[in-house]
């Protein structure tokens, strides 16, 4: 059986008396895009932050390639983290840096890349994201949607193995939202990266994900393919993805 690249093994996390994760079991496989869906405030960002170690579980563990993150030595953890890139809510661009400098930063941090290659890579990413010509602007001069796309360019500029996206398309207009989804999809085909994406874009996200995981009441209540979730008969899932009241649906179907 394939070992998941990232695995949550009965993970619990509370903040004071707010129990957010209550035994999360989740498997994320190499080369797939996994979409994490669920109601607002249910704990999707909290789950994502556990993957990169911004939060630690109270109980349970997270395995990376079959090995517990907390059992790894400092160097091994660092090597594992080097494979990650992430794009979180609130784009976290550096206001004192230009767009070019923001996007180039991860390449400079990696070290030993010739100047002209950095320039080419940054230009390529900005062009792909419809941002050519704004290299010298500062984040404060950009619209919210533009900032989001700059953040995406920065997350992808190193061609990372694993990318975590927290609502990458929220606030984008429909055309740019589709473009951002298409780009994630094209990247996956080109580089086979592993993506974990928190998203409210249902059903759009089903078209670019191989696996969907739904978080509800502190647990993963569904994990499987987009087709499987579309065909699920579980009322809580149907209600969420179709926005329909299961009682109304049952009443309607019994009339036929
Ligand atoms: N660092 C923290 N300290 C205290 N509480 C926190 C912290 N981070 C998250 N929470 C709480 O955890 C819960 C889940 O928050 P989270 O941001 O993960 O939800 P979400 O599902 O991503 O929501 P949304 O879809 O609206 O972005 C909320 O009640 C939030 O207040």
Automatic annotation (TrEMBL):
Record keyword Ribosomal protein present: no
SMART domains referenced in this protein's UniProt entry, alphabetically: AAA (SM00382)
Species lineage: Bacteria, Pseudomonadati, Thermodesulfobacteriota, Desulfobacteria, Desulfobacterales
SUPFAM superfamilies associated with the record: P-loop containing nucleoside triphosphate hydrolases
GO molecular function term, any single one: ATP hydrolysis activity
Protein name in the entry: ABC transporter ATP-binding protein
UniProt-listed InterPro entries: AAA+_ATPase, ABC_transporter-like_ATP-bd, ABC_transporter-like_CS, P-loop_NTPase
Keyword flag Transport: yes
UniProtKB keywords: ATP-binding, Nucleotide-binding, Transport
Organism of origin: Desulfosarcina alkanivorans
Signal sequence region: none
Residue span, ABC transporter domain: 6-242
Matching PROSITE patterns: ABC_TRANSPORTER_1, ABC_TRANSPORTER_2
């Amino acid at each position: 059986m394939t070992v998941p690249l990232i695995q949550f093994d009965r993970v619990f996390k509370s903040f004071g008396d707010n129990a957010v994760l209550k035994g999360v079991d989740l498997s994320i496989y190499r080369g797939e895009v996994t979409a994490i869906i669920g109601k607002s405030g249910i704990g999707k960002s909290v789950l994502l932050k556990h993957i990169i170690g911004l939060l630690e579980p109270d109980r349970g563990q997270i395995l990376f390639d079959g090995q517990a993150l907390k059992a790894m030595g400092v160097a091994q953890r660092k090597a594992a983290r080097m494979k990650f890139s992430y794009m979180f809510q609130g784009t976290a661009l550096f206001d004192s840096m230009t767009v070019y400098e923001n996007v180039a930063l991860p390449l400079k941090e990696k070290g030993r890349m010739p100047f002209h290659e950095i320039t080419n890579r940054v230009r390529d990413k900005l062009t792909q994201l419809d941002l050519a010509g704004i290299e010298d602007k500062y984040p404060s001069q950009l619209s919210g949607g533009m900032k989001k796309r700059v953040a995406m360019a920065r997350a992808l500029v190193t061609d990372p193995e694993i990318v975590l996206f927290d609502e990458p398309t929220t606030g984008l207009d429909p055309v740019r939202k589709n473009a951002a989804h298409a780009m994630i999809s094209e990247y996956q085909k080109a580089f086979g990266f592993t993506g974990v994406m928190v998203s409210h874009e249902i059903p759009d996200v089903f078209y670019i994900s191989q696996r969907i995981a739904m978080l509800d009441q502190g647990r993963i209540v569904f994990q499987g393919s987009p087709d499987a979730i579309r065909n699920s008969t579980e009322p809580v899932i149907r209600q969420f993805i179709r926005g329909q009241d299961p009682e109304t649906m049952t009443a309607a179907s019994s009339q036929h």
